[in-house]
């Protein structure tokens, strides 16, 4: 139904407007008595064999929703009903910001891809926290970043602010220094500033009675040498793991007219590269830390490939937009079959 009817209709309109419309529609729809239970019955796959323990968290299943879809924690409860084992919110910044000028979100249907240059548009961490207080059992990851106008030299303060604000209401943290849409942000991926930032957050983490897992989200555009640096940084800072990968700046092999747009590319063109990065990190580190695999998962096989490459759990974003919630269910069913 989704790919045959809903998707062609939604794809006729501006993608950012459709996103907001869809959020409103889902929120309204779930207010109808019995709808939540009906959706769960159709999409949620429940089985103890799907439970996956990673960095001290037991996920009900290993398929999550990546950051960027529910930036402001407005719909995590409803979205979990579509079969996701966890929801990652954000990227959040200390102060709400509008992000980059519109138009800033582009579909590439010939490539089953999306280009975005959103620029960390969000309402600020405090607003998200107020919504997370109403959470009813959904495992939440908090993806944090810096405000656009904060210079890199002061970025640590932005990350600390978000970390402390979210601490009581998320299950794990993700440090985002890999978005291509905030000026100079990716410079924080360099070994020295990244080590300093993660060490600072780990220091803050250790001041809490029960520290939370901190993960690093990396770009797919890193060289092998830079990926080896990432392995060293994870070891030195003792963070919990890595999310591989964010969007890419590459435009290799694209067919769609919108390929000329600036921003980060997600979707099918990223499938192989993100899997390569996962395999490289897993093999070169001797599986020393967990990896969340994300990037170009549009089929069951894409997800299984990432798990086989070394990912502990996976996340969807663009694949969810193109394929709909049936993909979440199909992946979980396939994983369950392999584990049975």
Automatic annotation (TrEMBL):
This protein's record includes keyword Flavoprotein: yes
Binding positions (FMN): 67-71, 91, 143, 176, 217, 245, 267, 296, 317-318
An example Gene Ontology molecular-function term: dihydroorotate dehydrogenase (quinone) activity
Keywords, sorted A to Z: Cell membrane, Flavoprotein, FMN, Membrane, Oxidoreductase, Pyrimidine biosynthesis
GO-annotated biological processes: 'de novo' pyrimidine nucleobase biosynthetic process; 'de novo' UMP biosynthetic process
CDD domains according to UniProt: DHOD_2_like
Cofactor note: Binds 1 FMN per subunit.
Pathway: Pyrimidine metabolism; UMP biosynthesis via de novo pathway; orotate from (S)-dihydroorotate (quinone route): step 1/1
Cofactor section: FMN
CC per GO annotation: cytoplasm; plasma membrane
Keyword Cell division on entry: no
Binding site residues for substrate: 71, 116-120, 176, 181, 246-247
Entry annotation: catalytic residues: 179 (nucleophile)
Subcellular localization, as worded in the UniProt entry: Cell membrane; Membrane
Cross-referenced SUPFAM superfamilies: FMN-linked oxidoreductases
Membrane-related topology note: Peripheral membrane protein
EC class name: oxidoreductase
Subunit structure: Monomer.
Chain's role: Catalyzes the conversion of dihydroorotate to orotate with quinone as electron acceptor.
Record NCBIfam families: PRK05286.1-2, PRK05286.2-5, pyrD_sub2
Family, as annotated: Belongs to the dihydroorotate dehydrogenase family. Type 2 subfamily.
Protein name: Dihydroorotate dehydrogenase (quinone)
